[in-house]
Write a structure and sequence with these properties.
This protein has a seven-stranded parallel sheet, with helices on both faces. The protein has one domain: NAD(P)-binding Rossmann-like Domain (Rossmann fold). The longest helix has 29 residues. The protein is built from eight helices and seven strands. Helix 1 packs parallel to helix 2, helix 3 runs parallel beside helix 4 and helix 4 packs parallel to helix 5. With 234 residues, the protein is of the alpha/beta class.
């Protein structure tokens, strides 16, 4: 029975991925900062058909919460997939770097860089035992210079590099930096306050790209959802 830990799984892409894995009968360990949102998400996962769901509310930047997640995973005896999806955008509206509050920038790095690495360090033995996969959710802001995105984008760029090095250091697992592209999520709305983002795709439309990574066990690396969703040319 396959087991996945997905952080930030109450809404958006994390929840859409959890639903897809639940439909495949996976056992899921999920977290989110808001317990009420997480409870609502778990009720949906139970109805879809997950083998089991452990909900662990909390903040991934908190070492005590990370320890709770590890304990929840180990109750199931294995870990096939770790998805570091929880992210912090930073201030909204997005500030330019010349006036970016450094305490806010530290928080962005704590959530988007240090917490994923810390959780990966704790659970790497479990992933190695299962020859599993690590997915660090990235962003196009990690590779493109968008005004206002210096905090979030630089944190995701750092995460991309950590993922690449982990892939080189741990060849028996797969380490993916996964760029889902623009999506219609609460975080994306926060980045564009007052704007209509209804033209962005729903997160559920991006999930098949990540499932392709997992199903085909593609080599470790950085992947864009847009490329994975494009049929290969014979």
């Amino acid at each position: 029975m396959s087991v996945a830990l997905i952080t930030g799984a109450s809404k958006g892409f994390g929840h859409a991925l959890a639903r897809a894995l639940a439909a495949r009968g996976w056992t899921l360990v999920v977290d989110a900062r808001t317990a009420g949102d997480l409870d609502h998400a778990v009720a949906q996962l139970d109805r879809i058909g997950a083998a089991a769901v452990d909900a662990v509310p909390g903040d991934v930047a908190d070492p005590a919460h990370r320890a709770e997640l590890v304990s929840a995973v180990r109750r199931h005896g294995r870990l096939d997939l770790l998805v570091n999806n929880a992210s912090a955008l930073g201030p909204s509206p997005l500030p330019a770097l010349d006036r970016y509050p450094l305490d806010e920038l530290e928080r962005v790095y704590q959530v988007n860089v240090f917490a994923p690495l810390a959780l990966t360090q704790l659970l790497l033995p479990d992933l190695l035992a299962a020859r599993g996969a690590l997915v660090d959710v990235s962003s196009d802001a990690a590779v493109e210079a968008y005004e206002g995105w210096g905090g979030y984008g630089s944190a995701k760029a750092a995460l991309d590099h950590l993922t690449a090095v982990l892939g080189a250091e741990q060849p028996s697992i797969r380490a993916y930096a996964f760029d889902p592209g623009d999506m219609r999520t609460d975080m994306h709305q926060q980045a564009f306050p007052g704007e209509d983002i209804s033209d962005r795709p729903e997160p559920v439309t991006v999930v098949p790209a990540l499932l392709r990574l997992l199903d085909e066990r593609l080599p470790s690396g950085r992947y864009r959802a847009a490329d994975l969703l494009t049929p290969a040319v014979a």
